[in-house]
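Fold this complex.
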Amino acid sequence: ETGVTQTPRHLVMGMTNKKSLKCEQHLGHNAMYWYKQSAKKPLELMFVYSLEERVENNSVPSRFSPECPNSSHLFLHLHTLQPEDSALYLCASSQEGPWSGGAADTQYFGPGTRLTVL
Amino acid sequence: GQNIDQPTEMTATEGAIVQINCTYQTSGFNGLFWYQQHAGEAPTFLSYNVLDGLEEKGRFSSFLSRSKGYSYLLLKELQMKDSASYLCACMDSNYQLIWGAGTKLIIKP
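Structure:
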């Protein structure tokens, strides 16, 4: 495996379900990110981890819970979601910790998980 | 507030040239990124500009004018596979990325 992988690629869940999204990066990077992408809207940064420590949480509802057990893996735990949470959830990684500046902040993305909440 | 503006959709013809513009208003500036995203796929990195001028990479070039808060992505010799969304993202003074909503480029034969 190379780059950034995400599983599952598609997920349909009810509002009372609990599920988890998984991201794995094979680039030896130090920072990982969760984004939400809705149609015709800018990417919304949800969480940032640098060297396994959370450094940013952009006021995301508590029904989204991230976990970063090591620098290669990132999870997003989901529970009691709402239909408006339906979106593409993208994971990304960058070489240096976030906000180090310059090209080292270039983020490499996984293919995303298409989430539908019924 | 901080803002990135880019056209929602553009159409061009195979073999032609297209320019996708991006204007930004941010608190400070630490570089601008362009990404390509095919439908249902990951955004992929195209270019990074931090100094004024034109950077060329094969058929794709990216231009930056910091004084005007303006960038463009130039695609030459368009191919059908260039049909995708193109995302502009600007890094502010806190090194946070501010994203545009993306420009959907449709290539016609």
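The interface with chain A takes residues 4, 8, 30-31, 33, 35, 40-45, 48, 50, 87, 89, 91, 94-102 of chain B (CB under 8 Å).
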